[in-house]
Each structure stands twice: as C-alpha cells, then as structure tokens.
Design brief:
By secondary structure, the protein is an all-alpha fold. Helix content is about 75%, strand content about 0%. The chain contains nine helices and no strands.
C-alpha cells in the first residue's frame, strides 16, 4: 500500500471522527481541558511547584487521550459496525489507528495550547525549546495510541463498559503514577523508572529543555532513544500483532 494513500486514509478517518462531534458537542473541548487542570488545581492549593504541574497537565492532555481514545473509540466502532465499512475500503491498520487517534487529539489541542501558553507566559518553557517539547509530546501520544489500539483489538469479546474502565485505569495510571506531575528526584534511587514510561519520559525531556531538571547530554539522548524505541515497538505491534479483522 502506498504511503500517500495511507496518509490520506488517516486524515479522512480523523475528519469523519472529529468534525461531526465538534459540531454537535463543542463543550467537549472545555470539559477535556478542565479534566487535565484538576491536578494543577490541587498542586496550587497544597503549595506544589506550578511549573511541574503545567508540564504534567500538557502530558495528561495529550497522553491520556491517546490511550483512552484508542481503546474506547475503536471499540465503539466495532459495536456500530463502522469498522467493517472501513475494512472493506480497504484501509491499512496503521491508517485506521492514526486516524482514530488524531480525531481526539484535535479535541485536546485547545487544552494543550492553554497550558502551553501559561507556561510560556511565566517563562517556564523557553521559546527556543518549543519544537523539542512538541516532538516529545507527539511521540508520547503515538506510543500510547499504539498500545491502546493493540489492547482493543485483542479484547474483542470484552464489553464496551469493561474496555472503557480499562482505558480510564490505564490512562490515569500512566499519567499519575510515574513522575509526570512530580519531579523524579522524589523517587530517590528509583528515578530511573521514569525512563520506562512514555509519559514520564516525555515529561523528563520537557523539563530538561525547560531547565527544570538538570540532565546530562547523554541522559537526554537516552530519553529520546527510549521514546523512539517505544514508538517503533508500538508500530510493530500494530502492523504485525493487532487483531485487525474480525474472525
């Protein structure tokens, strides 16, 4: 399958899944932004570091929607028979995964832009590091979307309620348990755990480029290598291991 067709298919699926919802439920944008802002609110109340809270809010806005949407949205497609229509086109699994993940990412952009604007306004994020920060966030989103897609295809017989709960648990666990809203130094000798999770890995890179954490050049390269390896593995799983077609 040609790369151009895969890209076009992904964009068409993203448009089909996002534009109607944007027209019907524009308040979803506000609600999704508020969900990511809740931890930031508690950080302010209890005297925590707002810079870490803003980094966590950006990761949460993009990361949570990645894995949750990949499970929930693709599962919903199976119930309303949209998947069968898309498969008949035919569409490559990677195109479908990217399109399904891009749609909710569109919803998360206003919330992400809001938190990013605050971070830039207060000087927590230097403008020259913006490109690296966006790249780290997109890699995190891509990894979690791939993981969610594979999970949803293997749990084909599970109910939509079970998968929705699983999506929420995984999303919350990957955002709040690793050092995303808090510094890795709080883990002491276990700070290396942050490299094992795409969310905390991206958070570490953002802090490094923002000057919020003192990472050596070697550690920055290790973080990038870890995120790229995670993305490669997730793409491999989508292409070769995902149970794409119904049996």
């Amino acid at each position: 399958m040609k790369l151009g067709k895969m890209v076009r298919d992904a964009l068409v699926i993203a448009a089909l899944k996002s534009i109607p919802d944007l027209k019907r439920q524009p308040l979803m944008l506000m609600v999704m932004g508020l969900i990511s802002a809740l931890p930031l609110f508690f950080i302010l109340v209890f005297g925590g570091e707002i810079s870490y809270g803003l980094v966590g809010a950006m990761i949460s806005t993009v990361g949570f929607i990645g894995i949750a949407s990949a499970i929930q949205d693709i599962t919903f497609d199976r119930y309303v028979k949209i998947r069968e229509i898309i498969v008949a086109m035919p569409v490559h699994p990677v195109s479908y995964m990217i399109g399904a993940a891009l749609a909710p990412l569109i919803f998360s952009l206003p919330g992400f832009a809001f938190f990013l604007a605050i971070a830039l306004w207060f000087g927590f994020i230097p403008l020259q590091a913006l490109g690296w920060i966006i790249a780290a966030l997109l890699l995190c989103w891509a990894v979690l979307s791939g993981i969610g897609f594979v999970i949803s295809t293997y749990l084909r017989k599970a109910s939509i309620y079970t998968l929705n709960n699983l999506a929420n648990i995984l999303g919350l666990g990957l955002v709040f348990l690793p050092p995303v809203y808090y510094p890795e130094e709080l883990l002491g000798g276990l700070g290396w755990i942050g490299i094992l999770f795409p969310t905390s890995n991206a958070a570490g890179l953002i802090r490094a480029y923002s000057g919020l954490a003192a990472f050596s050049q070697e550690m920055v390269l290790i973080r990038w290598a870890a995120l790229l390896a995670m993305m490669a593995i997730s793409i491999f799983l989508v292409i070769f291991k995902a149970k794409w077609r119904e049996t």
